[in-house]
Design brief:
185 residues, 7 helices, single chain, mainly alpha
Length: 185
């Protein structure tokens, strides 16, 4: 009797392992497809963001020229632009979507801080080249439909990653999250 129970337990364990492997293999394809969709939709956003952040680099220069080079926001902006520019060094085949979106979101937040700093400083408001550079960044935005498509795909991928059926596979095979892009300012 004990031998029979051990055999049944062994068969159950083997069946559970087979079911787990089958689930992982079938789940991996859906996760990969969703992640690839997000990465593919990121590529059309890179060029408009490169233009936007080139203009933000001009804002950085104007901040320094206006005597605001030692402000925390100016130093943070310099570091953020440096990170963005290093990430842009590769080709479209070497894109680290997650890192680029995080860097872009950081720059968007920094631009909002710069905008508030300039807007609340009577001295900086009088520096015409600086206010013009800030206005230029405000006007250079990525196309809204492309941002929406990317963000929708990122949210779909995240929803898939969090579903019970896919979450273990996502952790086992390093299906990292893809953040949404937060533009504005």
């Amino acid at each position: 009797m004990a031998r029979r129970v051990r055999r049944i337990a062994l068969v159950v364990v083997v069946l559970l392992v087979i079911a787990g492997v089958a689930l992982a293999v079938t789940s991996r394809g859906r996760l990969a497809d969703d992640r690839d969709q997000v990465d593919e939709l990121w590529l059309p956003l890179r060029a408009p963001l490169v233009d936007r952040y080139a203009n933000l680099d001009a804002v950085l220069g104007q901040l320094r020229d206006a005597g605001a080079g030692e402000r925390d926001v100016t130093r943070d902006l310099a570091r953020g632009l440096d990170r963005w520019n290093r990430l842009q060094g590769g080709s479209n085949d070497d894109v680290d979507t997650e890192a680029e979106v995080i860097a872009a979101n950081n720059l968007e937040g920094l631009f909002n801080r710069v905008n508030q700093t300039v807007g609340s400083s009577p001295r900086l408001q009088t520096v015409t080249p600086l206010t013009e550079a800030v206005t230029t960044v405000t006007l250079v935005v990525p196309p809204a439909p492309a941002v929406t498509a990317y963000n929708d795909a990122a949210e779909t991928y995240q929803d898939t990653r969090e579903q019970a059926r896919y979450s273990l596979t996502a952790r086992l095979f390093d299906f990292e999250p893809r953040p949404t892009l937060l533009t504005g300012g």
